[in-house]
Specification:
Elements lengths: L1 H21 L5 H21 L6 H21 L5
Helix pairs in contact: 1-2, 1-3, 2-3
């Protein structure tokens, strides 16, 4: 239970940071995909115990969040 509370804090920080960096663009389509991937990673990591929680998990979840948002920014047409 404690690890899920930590996960909520991690996600809140990452979602706030990505929203701030996106500026005028809507980040939620990519953030939704990233959150689903991060929760799936958490469920898998609870069973496999491959990543140390929370530090290594924080690194991998941040990389997932950044990559998914960059892919979305690459795919969408420019607003100008």
């Amino acid at each position: 239970m404690k690890s899920w509370v930590i996960l909520l804090f991690i996600l809140a920080f990452q979602l706030g940071s990505c929203t701030a960096m996106a500026g005028n663009l809507e980040p939620w389509p990519a953030n939704l995909i990233a959150v689903v991937l991060i929760v799936a990673l958490k469920l898998w990591n609870d069973r496999a115990k491959v990543l140390g929680f929370p530090m290594e998990f924080l690194l991998f979840s941040t990389v997932i969040m950044i990559v998914v948002n960059l892919v979305r920014l690459y795919i969408i047409p420019l607003p100008f």
